Amino acid sequence: MRQEEIWNGLSISELFGKPAYPSSHQMEYVKSLLKPISSEVGLRDFERDVVENAVQKLVDRANTDPLLRSSLGIQGTVTYESHTNLGTTDDLISEPMEHMSLDRDDTGATAQGSAPKQAPAPKSRRKARGKGNRADQFCIYRTSEGRNVPALAIEYKAPHKLSLDEIITGLEAEIQPERDVINKDSQGFVLTARRLAAAVVTQLFSYMIGKGIQFGYICTGQALVFLHIPNDPSTVYFSVCVPNQDVMDDDETRLHRTAVAQVFAFILQALRARPPPQMWHDAAETLGIWTVEYDDILRDIPPSERKRKEPRASPYRPQRWKGFKRSPIRTRSRCQQRGTNVEQPKEEDEDPPSPTPNPSRTSGKLLPSMSKSSSSKSGSQGRRSGRQQERGVVKKSDIQDRPFCTQRCLLGLAHGRPLDKSCPSASYHGQRHISRLQFLRLVRHQLAVDRGYDADCAPLHRSGSRGSLFKVRLTSHGYTLVAKGVEGVDLVCLQHEKDMYDQLQPLQGEYVPICLGIIDLALPYYYDSGIWVHFMFLSWAGQPILDCVDPAMKAGIATAVSMAYRAVHKLRVLHHDAQPRNILYNTTSRGFMVVDFERAEFRCRRPLASIEPNLNRKRKRRAVQKQKKDDFARELESAVANALSCVANLPF
């Protein structure tokens, strides 16, 4: 995974021989607007104007070239998102660095849901998985077909908080935090630099683990520190890049060493990579915690120590694309015995994750502690698939190409009806359907053991306010459907939604999806900062009309949506969320369905009562009944209007 290989791949297209950047006059104008960097916010603004906008143009340009998309395995363009204030404001961002724990045992579904007092608070647990409110952390998402997939993380650190000398000095030798950093007095510039560098790498490493991201970089405006977490999450490889020193006038490849070129090539590596499997997250959950706040460390260091720069034995060496050997820098919350080594695939030694060629001074790896329980039953499967993934572009897992079962098929599974011979997976279902409860038992067991790259469960990259959708296939019987996952704190909402589906049971398979029930996962599923511990299984209903471009759905959409909502309302259910994202269109059946009933309300009819002698009470009761009737009418009108607005620009 070298930067040079990416640029060699780009050279096959004529597209990158054509102008892509703004004119020199435009660049001079941008330069005139730049201001000195005094904070992470200022650094972010600087990087956006100088580096990220240019990188965005290059990625967009590469994504428009079919040859490059195929040869480099590019799967979409990118969007930048800040996660400021996504977490709760009353949670601490971090604690003093000496507060540590190992072998956390808080991943059970029961602990997350029914016994919250025995597990960490759900809100803080979410933050531990990368959903923090740090203003200096950004996530780059791969955007394709209306879906956002986490791809790369960025940590901005203002140069006055982490100087270039501190980066180069701090990352030039092996670091074992318990031995060299934790609870150690920072005496001398070398120790101070080592402590600061270890802290900032650890912070971004933790964020990457939480987001399920294997690529990231630290940016100070003067230097870039590229990070890569391989298939073994107990290790993070890093590489330092100083563009001002890397770009030399007499170097034919100097363009490739600019900040824009380095970040661009690194992002392409992230875009072509496959998200890590669940066994990667399982292993990450066993790592020890070094909770550390960078600003606290910075505050504790006397200014005189940061200014006392001792001569470095090996100063930074500009890059020359000649390959390099990595020097191990082990970070351990509690050191293992010297004989305990983490197995590293050979591919990782052959493919450096970063562009830096310096043999031991600006590249290395960081090894947090890991417990024996990190191995799982699916370990061999994950390692086999993982090694193929590390080598470059990989094929999509089999689950991505499996067709969903038909509505009629899953109605048979839910109610013991005959098989649907037209279901694309009918040949896997056997002579007759298994029972619904047997399906739930089997799929729960499968989700606990099938957790490698080839697992029959994958995120659909569609999330709402309380859950995310997954595609699941029961391997033994071929049933392929959708699971809505929620965290423990949202189980009540998921149960309410199932109750609404039960109320709409006569409409399942026609106007609403078929609901097969809820399970508590034996092991959590991790995705984009979430820890999903409850799954509700539904039939595939289609794509949101927001994302559909099929002209066939335009004809009669008002009538079809109206029929769906009238049927729902007839059963006294008020949806309360009649937005286009919840009105789905199935291009195969050419039908519309309504989904997402977590906000829905059942409006039961008022029972018959004796005649009220008080006329005022009669009038009040009529007014209430009229109001309820108006709620249904208003929702129907809103749903139809929203649907029509989505297809207004589609041709007939």
Structural class by secondary-structure content: alpha+beta
Number of discrete domains: 3
Rg value: 28 Å
Gross morphology is elongated
* Biggest β-sheet description: 7 strands, mixed
Q: What features would you describe in this structure?
A:
The chain is of the alpha+beta class and 652 residues long. The protein folds into 3 domains: 249 residues, no CATH class; 139 residues, Phosphorylase Kinase, domain 1 (2-Layer Sandwich), CATH 3.30.200; 89 residues, Transferase(Phosphotransferase), domain 1 (Orthogonal Bundle), CATH 1.10.510. It has 22 helices and 19 strands. The strands form 5 sheets. It has a 7-stranded mixed beta sheet with strand order 1-3-4-5-6-7-9, with helices on both faces. The radius of gyration is 28 Å and the shape is elongated.
How would the blueprint of this fold be written?
Elements: H1 3-10, H2 24-33, H3 40-63, H4 66-72, E1 77-82, E2 100-101, H5 109-113, H6 122-128, E3 137-144, E4 147-156, H7 164-170, H8 177-180, H9 189-211, E5 215-219, E6 224-228, E7 236-241, H10 243-246, H11 259-272, H12 278-285, E8 289-290, H13 294-300, H14 303-307, H15 346-350, E9 363-366, H16 379-390, H17 398-401, H18 407-415, H19 436-449, E10 457-463, E11 468-474, E12 479-486, H20 491-503, E13 515-527, E14 530-538, E15 543-544, H21 557-570, E16 573-574, E17 583-586, E18 591-594, E19 601-602, H22 615-647
Parallel strand pairs: 4-5
Antiparallel strand pairs: 1-3, 2-8, 3-4, 5-6, 6-7, 7-9, 10-11, 11-12, 12-14, 13-14, 15-17, 16-19, 17-18
Helix pairs in contact: 1-11, 3-11, 7-9, 21-22
